[in-house]
Design brief:
Length: about 375
């Protein structure tokens, strides 16, 4: 007997919603479920005091791909927001990412050559030839002063591990520039969807059956009979009953505050890079959309170790976890009729544009079609 749905999509985040939109467009009947009480996954925004509060952490869309940029623009218009976080180290303010403004404030250097000389001097003193971990990578990119003030404290709070035990790639997400450019990203396209991210997901899921507050694992047997195929975007180790061991994740706790002022910190993102302040950053949401409300909402972001029942925000891609993941991936490749995708099911530190790209690739494979040239 044919099932009621062609696809059961577990997770109403960006991967699940993109896949559902494309499948629906091709006449396939989809059921999207999520264990949360809302759609959108981690890009979901909550309206508080007329401000779109990024409930699961600040989300700035950026991509170098014209195709992905055009793709998301069919669902919403984007504003001209450019992310330029600042770092607060024990009350001293520095520009991010690491650029001539940062170097000038720290060392009084004015020209790119002076900055490079300073970094080369510190790199030589540290004696690092081939960086093997985040600490060595950071020192070899920007020297010991910046590492000590802007990286070590933040990183060790964020990941709950020594920077010397973390993979180098994490710090390579951040640009290092020898000009006075405070744009946090190098990508050609950047912005925040006008009206918030929910609009994008709502449009993607228009006309598609969505059921919330449903945990796949609680109703697995029944759900599996309802569709020909499953698209799974939850935790891959949970899917396979942790048979090769538990993968580690980093979780977060968010503390919102409403303040009776129109401008609390003068910037959307302020990072607290010392080791004592328990949170990593304070987000003032209205600045993402140039809000003019009388009040403001800020969120303090506290990193915590993940335990069952917590939200698994970040995969911890060190050697130990990558080895465990490899076993799950091999097993996942042998499953008929199950597509694994997104940040949790592929255990990857993916940004939004990469998740959309991966979902479109999955669509290309599933429907034997071509969507992306890049
Ligand atoms: P998710 O959004 O996690 O969606 C998965 C969904 O599946 C969730 O809604 C979950 O509830 C549901 N689910 C899981 N298990 C089950 C189950 N068993 N049953 C039912 N439902 C289930 N990216 C950027 O590009 N720019 C940024 O500035 C940025 N900032 C970020 C800041 C933070 C703090 C975090 C954590 C991430 C950030 N990202 C950013 C990354 C971005 O959030 C992700 O790339 C993207 O949202 C991942 O989409 P997804 O669909 O893979 O996963
Ligand atoms: N980082 C840091 N100091 C900062 C900002 C970032 O040391 O002020 C490091 C930290 O290890 C962090 C990584 O750079 O995990 C990547 O930063 P990004 O802002 O991309 O993190 P995300 O927004 O994904 O949490």
């Amino acid at each position: 007997m044919k099932s009621k749905y062609d696809f059961l999509i577990v997770g109403a985040g960006l991967f699940g919603a993109t896949f559902a939109f494309e499948a629906n467009k091709r006449g396939k009947k989809c059921l999207v479920i999520d264990r949360r009480n809302h759609i959108g996954g981690n890009v979901y925004c909550e309206n508080i005091e007329g401000i779109n509060v990024h409930k699961y952490g600040a989300h700035i869309f950026h991509t170098n791909s014209k195709e992905i940029w055009e793709y998301v623009n069919q669902f919403a218009e984007f504003n001209r927001y450019t992310n330029s976080p600042i770092a607060n180290y024990k009350g001293e303010i520095f520009n991010l990412p690491f650029n001539m403004n940062t170097f000038n404030k720290l060392w009084g250097v004015v020209t790119p050559k002076e900055a490079m000389d300073k970094i080369n001097e510190q790199r030589a003193e540290a004696g690092i030839i081939e960086p093997k971990n985040l600490e060595e990578q950071a020192i070899s990119l920007v020297g010991t002063d910046i590492y000590e003030k802007l990286i070590k404290g933040y990183t060790e709070k964020q990941w709950g591990r020594s920077a010397s035990e973390l993979p180098a790639f994490i710090i390579k997400r951040l640009p290092v520039r020898f000009n006075y450019d405070n744009n946090y990203f190098n990508d050609k396209y950047q912005g925040i969807p006008e009206g918030g991210y929910n609009k994008i997901i709502e449009k993607m899921l228009e006309g598609i059956d969505v059921k919330l507050n449903i945990d796949f694992f609680r109703e697995r047997n029944d759900l599996e009979t309802q569709a020909e195929k499953i698209v799974f975007t939850g935790m891959i180790d949970e899917f396979f009953n942790y048979q090769f061991g538990k993968l580690e994740y980093r979780s977060l706790q968010f503390e919102n505050e409403i303040h009776q002022t129109d401008n609390y910190q003068g910037n959307a993102v302020v990072n607290y890079t010392d080791s004592k302040t328990p949170y990593t950053r304070i987000i003032e949401h209205k600045h993402f959309e140039f809000g003019t409300q009388d009040k403001t909402v800020i969120t303090k972001e506290y990193p915590v170790e993940w335990a069952p029942g917590d939200e698994p925000y970040y995969p911890i891609n060190n050697d130990k976890n990558n080895l465990i993941y490899k076993k799950y991936r091999e097993l996942s490749e042998k499953q008929n009729n199950i597509i694994f995708g997104g940040r949790l099911a592929t255990y990857k530190y993916y940004d939004m544009h990469q998740v959309i790209g991966a979902a479109l690739k999955a669509v290309e494979k599933e429907f034997d079609t071509s969507l992306l040239n890049e």
